[in-house]
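cache lookup: miss for this entity combination. No prior model stored, computing from scratch. Input as submitted by user K.M.:
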Amino acid sequence: MTTRLAPLALCAALAAGPALADLVFPDLSYRTGPFAAGGIPFSDGYQDYFTLMNERDGGIGGVKARVPECETAYNTEKGVECYEATKGDGALIYQPLSTGITYQLIPKVEADHIPLHTMGYGRTSAANGKVFEWVFNYPANYWDGASVVIKYLMDENGGSLEGKKITLLYHNSAYGKEPIPTLEALSKKHGFKLTLIPVDSPGQEQKSQWLQIRRERPDVVVMWGWGVMNQVAIQEAANIGFPMDHFIGNWWAGAEHDVTPAGMAADGYKALNMNRVVDYPVFADIRTHVVDKGLAAGDGSNVGSVLYTRGMYAAMLAVEAAKTAQEMTGTAQIDAAMMRDGMEHLEMTAARMDALGMPGIGPEFSVSCADHGGSGMAIVQQWNAGDKKWVPLTDFIAPDAEVIAPLVEADSAAFAAENGIAPRCD
Amino acid sequence: MFYREAGDFKTSYRDDSQTFPIGFDRYRYYAVLVLAFAVVPFVIDDYWASAIFVPFLIYAIAAIGLNILVGYCGQLSLGTGGFMAVGAYACYKLMTAFPDLNIVVCILGGGLVTAAVGVLFGLPSLRIKGFYLAVATLAAQFFLVWLFNKVPWFYNYSASGQISAPARSVFGLPVTGPGVEAWAQYMICLVFAVVLAWAARNLTRGTVGRSWMAIRDMDIAAEIIGVNPLKAKLTAFAVSSFYIGIAGALFFAVYLGAVEVGEAFGIQKSFLILFMIIIGGLGSIFGSFAGAAFLVLLPVLLKNVLVGTLGWPTDLTAHVQLMIVGALIIGFLIAEPHGLAQLWRIGKEKLRLWPFPH
């Protein structure tokens, strides 16, 4: 039968796997589809940092890193295929850059014992390491982000948001819905009025949403967007004359490609970021050792952009966790379980970031058995359309732990009950 | 030569009207079943299960379901994704509301709820036909996705609006949630696919199937000879939705484990399954399998050959893959507008005469 022949051919294709003995960091990237604009620079940064390790330092602790790439197109079915295709290769860590794929991988990594790191996305309550043994989301998660936005707005408004109208414009998916519980809790605490406006994926059509915003005249619009939705929202905000400095995106809605299509009209748009974007010394190293040698994952034009920096930051955290694991075990050839221990003992200090050539790129934080979430701090940055640059406005702002901790506790307890998980770390 | 009816004598009407009247065909069918039940489970690994067999079987069930409606009864539907979502969410609500209920019952329950919803959305088919009905079912697609996004009760008020399948087992073997063995995951889909395909094949050979086909071929004539269009159309919607609902429940519970409705059950899913039956062959059970295989396996195969063997960049591969699959679809449909099932039929005819075609 014809249907049986295809798998046979596939088998032949799969049998040609490469030899082991490298440290394997699979990159589930998306360079196609409606979210490619964000996926490409992130993946470039992620891969280039590992290439830099190989080229400049001779690998991680002397062992070369290998980054097999698999295209997911932000699609959950392809994400599962990619995970299954790469996990047998000795994969140390997964960073899928998609909340939807994360939700599918959580049960799988718990069963396969491979760490999953969802930096600033994914399931927020995974910050509770007592329940989620193999999932990490340091240094910050969505609920931290939502809280940081509100804290920043409090500072802007003289310490009170009483009676203000805040609108959340969100991608109508698991990703966009994540901040809602936190914002609702914060709106009760601080007395602001919260309006929720969903945008269906991918978000090319937002006329009615912005008509509603125009009618309701909120004081601030907060956006949880990704991909093409960001560009359209900023353009629509400009079209209705919404003041840009009252429009704040989260950290996935604040890259160069989001604001440049609107030109000068986007000037003053604000966004969160978990990395300060300045010209770090490490970029010079990447240009010399990676881009100039023709080894870059992309064409090298993204070096130093917001999402490239974040991809590189994600890779750096993985490399540092691997190094921690190597120190702890005394062996350079670590496996996924050792990698997990390394992640759980990861400590990012200012001195360490200085030594890596990226001073102050992220907050200082440390991970522990119970806390997989890090400090949750983020900065607010603003787009300067004249210079085509993101300008950091604040230092790292800490989230409101008083509100977030009980939410994390409740959500992870629900997951533990649903799946019969006994809390650990006691 | 080896594929012929000469010497294959039938002594009863029952033998004469069996599904595979030619001996060679029958033994091939048994061989496939033996292979699927007794060989594949022992050699399958996680990749083969999650990336190839499980999606293939689930899409095949959905394609059979849609084929019953479109291929056998002639009622064009674009609501498949929405109906799959109904199956998935009904299964999820049953799984979480009654933790002791067997997963098979939950999946069947998902199918039954979808059948009811399908009948409801099938009511307009009594008044409208063809493209107009397609638009009405398109409304079902958008309405159902919107509903599951909007009403938090459906996703048990979870923060993200995702539904995640808790661990459930059949005969003590986990088939959903973490820690599922590849072969268990494969077997549950296989059992559903085989039983449903067998049922569909026999339904379409009987009175019900003949009344569907009469409606498809000419509804006024069918009504004149005594086929009740209300009954025929609504049973087609019910049976079709039952199949699609089961596919949706398996898709969520066994295959992905967690879904969000807009991403997993959007309009693109409706089109994907419609393309499967158009490429596979309308009004053919084998065509449903062939179409599902074509659209599920081919992209994976191309990806593995281009990236794994030839070492192409992943983004280039993703784009080239779209072009190749698209070109093949056009090519196949030009060569044989009735789909892969018709190619298979022609091939069998040729085999029958071979090696003496004149």
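stored under new cache key. Confidence is low (pLDDT under 50) at residues 1-20 of chain A.
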